[in-house]
Design a protein that fits this description.
By secondary structure, the protein is an all-alpha fold. It has one domain. 88% of the residues lie in helices and 0% in strands. The chain has helices at 6-54, 61-103. α1 packs antiparallel against α2 (61-103). The longest helix is centred in the first third of the chain and has 49 residues, at 6-54. This is DUF1700 domain-containing protein.
Length: 105
C-alpha cells in the first residue's frame, strides 16, 4: 500500500480550491453554453416554421435565410465542439491523475 503525503493533500486541496476551481468552472460553463447555442441554432428553422404556422410571427425571407445560415453554422461547428469537448475531458482526466500521483509520492 502506498503512503499518502498529508502535506501534498493539503497543498493540492488549497491550490485546486483557490486557483483551479474558477478556471474549471469557467471552461465547463463556456463549453456548455457553446453546445446550447449550437443546438438552438440547429433548431432555429423548425422554430421559425412553427412560429409562422401558429401565427406568432410573419414568415419573411430574411428570417428564413438567417435561420438557415444559423443552422448551417451550427452543423459546421459541431465537429469542432466534439473535438474540444473530448480534449477538455481528456485534460481533466490527466489533471486528476496528476493530482493522484502527487498525493501518493
Amino acid at each position: 500500500m502506498r503512503k499518502v503525503n498529508i502535506f501534498a493533500v493539503i497543498g493540492l486541496f488549497f491550490f485546486n480550491l483557490v486557483v483551479m476551481l474558477g478556471a474549471v468552472i469557467t471552461i465547463y460553463a463556456l463549453l456548455a453554453s457553446a453546445w446550447i447555442v449550437a443546438i438552438s441554432f440547429i433548431a432555429s428553422p423548425a422554430l421559425l416554421v412553427l412560429a409562422a404556422l401558429s401565427g406568432l410571427q410573419a414568415m419573411s425571407v430574411v428570417n428564413l435565410i438567417s435561420s438557415i445560415l444559423l443552422a448551417t453554422l451550427a452543423f459546421i461547428s459541431f465537429p469542432l465542439l466534439t473535438r474540444v469537448s473530448a480534449l477538455i475531458l481528456t485534460l481533466s482526466r490527466q489533471y486528476i491523475d496528476f493530482n493522484k500521483a502527487m498525493i501518493y509520492r
